[in-house]
Amino acid sequence: MITNRRELLALAAAAPFAAFAATRALADGTACYDPAALSMSQKGLRKSLQFVDLSPDATKRCELCAFYKAAAPGCGSCQILNGPAASGSFCLSYAAKPK
Ligand code: SF4
Question: Is the CB of 78 under 6 A from ligand 1?
Fold first, then answer.
């Protein structure tokens, strides 16, 4: 709870940075899951499929892939990885959703 003007000004000054950090985390996928919490097999599979949290190609990203299932805005899961993925991520198993 804000009790004085100084706290209000400090909160107002920090808000844009917090919003930027949250947006950046969502963009790179780290807001969807904790990479450190993945099992060794999940980490190995991601490495072998060259999974990246942020796709280098905007036309090929998880949310456009047939193996992706959305669960929340910007976040979902991958049937190939058998785990979480961000909508903007990518791996070598990308397969476009049928149109
Ligand atoms: S197969 Fe690859 S591109 Fe497709 S949803 Fe899974 S991680 Fe994303």
Answer: yes
- With a 6 Å cutoff on the Cβ, whether 32 touches ligand 1 is no
Pick the CATH number of 5-86 from 3.40.50.150, 4.10.490.10, 3.40.1090.10, 3.20.20.70: 4.10.490.10
In the sheet that holds 83-86, the strands lie side by side as 68-72, 75-78, 83-86
The pTM is what?
Answer: 0.73
Cβ 35 vs Cβ 84: under 8 Å: no
Given a cut of 60, whether residue 66 has pLDDT beyond it is yes
- Residues 18-35 have pLDDT tens digits of 443 444 444 556 689 999
CA of 86 to the centre of ligand 1 (A): 9
